[in-house]
Amino acid sequence: MELNIPDSLTFTSLDQKLVHLDGLLKNIQDTLTKVRPASLPTFVYEGVTQLAGSLGQIRKQVSTLEDERRSLRALAQIGYYVNSSLELREVLQLVMDTIIRISRAERGFLMLHNPEGELVIQVARNWVQESIDPSEFEISRTVIYRVVNDGLPLLTTNAQEDPRFTGQNSVVAYNLRSILCVPLKARDEMIGVIYADNRIRSGMFTQKDLDMLSAFANQAGVAIENARLFESVRRTLAEVTELKNLMDNVFASMASGVLTADVEERVMMCNRAAATILGRASTEIVGHDLKETLPRLAPLIEPHLQRVMKTDQQVLGLETNAIQTPRGMVDLRMSLTPLKDVQQVTQGVAIVLEDLTEKKKLEAQRRLFERMVSPAVIEQLNPDRLHLGGRRTEITVLFADIRGFTGFSESLSPEGLVAVLNRYLASAAEAVLHEDGTVDKFLGDAVMAWFNAPIPQEDHIIRALRAAIQIRESLNALHATMREDMHLSFGIGIHTGDAVLGLVGTEKRLEYTAIGDSVNTAKRIQENAGPGQILISQATYAQVMDLVEVRPVDAINAKGKREPVVVYELVGLREDAGAEAGG
């Protein structure tokens, strides 16, 4: 990089002409001295002699002007370097090379204070325009500290003989001679020094060299301050960019949708989740009016938007029922928050969207599940521990079947029949769930349930018996709301025994059920129960005989059983049955 300055004054050619003229005048002077014509006046001889003497002075002035021109040219070039870039290190290397060349220095160093206040060499160059190895940083710390403390430039033509530095170890050890050192300031604050020396020759530097270096230091101080400011801005910009990228990543990865809009309700930002929830591309949302972007939500949001803008108050948990979007019906919860700048002036609003569609669906599924399994049981289930397969355990199985339903169904339409059936089955299911039992399934006009699984229940037999009695008694309340020709009753069978309980099916379609002879036995007992009758097996009765009142009945010949099944008709529970069972 070179700065081209027009050479309006050709000092070199002028000096050559003066040399030629000086030689010519000397020849004339010699000739006139040897051959002095009488006709020439005396003032001619004197004028030639005076002119010859003046030429020497003129040549000295020309030489001085040439030195000054070179210094000014170098200073201008240095100023150009300093102001041509904000990459300070590269610029200062060029500048130091120029200073060394002009001042005939052997080396040049630029030192700056670090945050701890220590002087650290930033640039070190030699006379062949190479960076100096740190092992060769042999400089006079005495000179440097004097400049730093006094704040004044310093020149010594021979440090070895300069009384100011007599006995200084660095001066003697490093054999230092010609030294220039000037303070480097920015906004009147000392930030460092520029140091140049020549270890070979004494008297290499003059006051002009010191003045030129001081002038450069003034420019360099401004350049360094600008470079530091630029670096600070660049670092801040990098931090802001990194923070923005982080925020973009956070917004992009958030499950909740986020929209921001300005005071004119124009969308400024839309994260990925918001675009997914609304079923539209972000390009169709950002830059558009909220009313255009959310036409079906606008009537709901608009009054709250105005409230947020005017009062700076949040609106939280605003829910709306299913809204039609391109991806289908969506249930939403929205929160609106004022968007403020650093002066806390509201510049818009942030809208957080939560897609409740799946949550609503799961809640509906849970409510349905709660109609089959007691909520108390559901709370204790661990989905992570439910796997395909099962485990063997003792349960009490209850079957309840509506008696006479087949004949009854012939007199009703399918719709009316289903309505009546649901009322009877719901009554039975509620009685089972009230005792924390599990409704396994509905088999036409029958209900299958069991107790003691999946959560163990020490009093599972008593719970099953209470549920059966509640099913029978609940019919009185149900019949009070129905026509007499719709009055039906249940036949109930109960048996206690081992069964395998677990998940049956595939990973996509599972059924939690009980399998075993005890289930079949309970069903066979129920098939032999009359209307309103509760029959319990010998195995069930044996465990609670002191807690129940029964009536003996004939053993039943159950299908698939070799021997008759001994059963008892349950009349009721003793008053202390609940307390003893619980204990």
Automatic annotation (TrEMBL):
Transmembrane spans: none
GO biological process: cAMP biosynthetic process; intracellular signal transduction
Chain ranges of the Guanylate cyclase domain: 396-526
InterPro entries linked: A/G_cyclase, Adenylyl/Guanylyl_Cyclase_3/4, GAF, GAF-like_dom_sf, Nucleotide_cyclase, PAS, PAS-like_dom_sf, PAS_4
Pfam families per the UniProt record, alphabetical: GAF (PF01590), Guanylate_cyc (PF00211), PAS_4 (PF08448)
MF term (GO), any: adenylate cyclase activity
Domain of life: Bacteria
Domain (PAS) ranges: 239-312
Record-linked PROSITE patterns: GUANYLATE_CYCLASE_2 (PS50125), PAS (PS50112)
UniProt family annotation: Belongs to the adenylyl cyclase class-3 family.
Protein name, UniProt field: Uncharacterized protein
Originating species: Levilinea saccharolytica
